[in-house]
Amino acid sequence: MKKTAYRMALLVFLPAAAMLSACQKGLPVDEDGLLITTRKECFVSNFELLGNDFVSVRNGVPIIDTVAQTINVTVNFGTDLKNLYPQFTLATDCKLDPKITGKVDFSDLANPKTWTVVSGDRQIRKAYKVFVKVQ
Asked: Which domains does the chain show, CATH number per domain?
């Protein structure tokens, strides 16, 4: 009976101890708790605008210029520009600054919104301007 309990303890506690020691290696994380990697890629690969009902309000495909760092998107006529949810698809390990925490007001069409894409190694920052046009 003691041998069985001893074996069970080894089967349970040794893997747990190994996992804990692996987690304590001090891997670098940023202020958001995200892992900092060596990736230098830093770009937006897709962009979406959702309305209050979380359905796309885009009309056509967004034009993303990674050199000029601009995103041009056309929305359907009648879209409530004060209550849109932007969604970015970024290169692997990148993050967006500022974070999108809710609805965004795009009603001032003369002044585009700006978000910064930060690379996985947190060294490269590219500011993307989002230009919205109504169909």
From this structure: 44-134 (2.60.40.2340)
